[in-house]
Amino acid sequence: MEMHAELDRRAFIRQLAVLAGGAATAACSAGVVTGPRGFPPDTTPPVTPPTSLDGMFVSARARGLTFGCGLNYAGLSDAALLAAHTRESGMVVPIAQGAWNQTHPGPSTWNFSVMDDLWSWAQSVHLPMRGTHLVWHQALPAWFSANVTSANASQYMRDHIQAFLGRYKGLFHSWNPVNEAVLPSDGRPDGLRNSPWLQLMGPQYIPQAFNFAAQVDPSATLVYNEFGIEEDTPLADRKRQFTLQLLQSLVQQGVPIHALGMQSHIAANSAIDASKLTAFLDAVAALGLRIFITELDVKDQTLPANIAARDAGVAAMYHTYLSAMLAHPAVSVVITWGLSDRLTWLTNQAPRPDGLPVRVLPLDDQLQRKPAWTAIVNSFTGR
How far apart are the first and last CA of the chain? Predict the structure, then answer.
């Protein structure tokens, strides 16, 4: 098993090296800024893979799953964290990287230096990498509102997708052409978020983004990514309903969509109804779509300060949720939104009321495996 896993990684990186030259040439068009380091060179020296292949990705692969962990740019400066990623993860997933305000700093300029650095590191340790959001209502650059109109929004979208996805054509595991387009509380009968894109282009901005992406890279796996559709609450019920409605519409229109991404930022005290989840997953799978868990973490705000009790509560939710999801054959990818508590967005987005550091990911801030790690592995192995 371990030998086959490592051979798979080596085969993947050989493919990256072959394809990178073509992608780099395509990216050197007028107006594209690559940053101080430019595109990662084809001659990146290989790093010896870890000899201890007992990480989470091994258990996932044995189940037929792809397992990955999110990594932000600051993590590239943390050698110990990177070593943990090579041990535990089967895929690199950018966190808080790749948004328009980073990659598209001017109306006709792009900057992919951060994405290039992440890709270069992933290549060096023989890991595939997942793409990021191509169209999102957040993190738009300052120039957007002054330059983008209903008359030119489609062209700006097309240009952005051409530059971004085209740069890494054939290299990444999958992409999110559209992220978080559903928000029932905005009051529209179709449940769509009243985002800048919807205001400029109407609901057709969603199929257009997928179509543009498929035109740039017909081989790309394209994912619609959404949050808040996991728990057993009236709000989640409504969001599942409208998300399914959107997916049905895209499939009926012949839009090139291949998977639903369920972000899965859940709380340790969340109510999870396995029967409701299964019914939803059945409906998604009936459309011919796969299901990815794309940003999994478990918030510990409501748990006691005691570390043992808190870790047990977080681990229990990982196991409950993953066991319910992985019972469905359409679920093929699991990604935790980070690997270690030393770098998690929940430190700022969901801090504990007592001020204690959050403990929300599989490894603690010293990179030691926690009960959450065991719970994830047990869910992969059916224990």
Answer: 20
Strands 133-135 and 175-179: what pairing?
parallel
Q: What is the CATH number of the domain that holds 326?
A: 3.20.20.80
The CA distance from 339 to 88, in Å, is 8
pLDDT at residue 54, rounded to an integer: 84
Q: Are 196 and 250 in contact (CB under 8 A)?
A: no
Dihedral sign, Cα of residue 43, residue 44, residue 50, residue 53: negative
Q: Which of 116, 91, 123 is nearest to 16 (CA)?
A: 123
Range of the domain at 323: 2-381
Amino acid, res. 338: G
**Res 1: pLDDT:** 35
Q: What is the mean pLDDT of each run of 10 residues along the chain (383 residues)?
A: 36 39 36 37 36 81 96 97 96 97 96 97 96 97 98 98 97 98 98 98 98 98 98 98 98 98 98 97 98 98 98 98 98 98 96 98 98 98 89
E-strand ranges in 112-248 read 133-135, 175-179, 222-226
Q: Is 294 helix (H, G, I), strand (E, B) or coil?
A: strand
Residue 198, helix vs strand vs coil: helix
Tokens representing residue 162 in the block: 């051409």
* pLDDT score for 53: 67
Q: Tell whether the torsion through CA atoms of 78, 81, 82 and 83 is positive or negative.
A: positive
Residue 52 burial (C-beta neighbours within 10 Å; 0-12, 13-18, 19+): exposed
Element at 261 (helix H, strand E): strand 259-262
Distance of alpha carbon 121 from alpha carbon 371, whole angstroms? 29
Determine how many CB atoms are found less than 10 A away from the CB of residue 118: 25
Residue 234 falls in which region: left (phi positive, over 0), alpha (psi -120 to 50) or beta = alpha
Q: What is the DSSP letter of 340?
A: B
Scan for tokens 């006691």, then name that residue.
304
CA 89 to chain CA centroid, Å, is 14
Work out how many domains the chain is built from and give that number: 1
Q: How many helices (H) and strands (E) does the chain have?
A: 14, 11
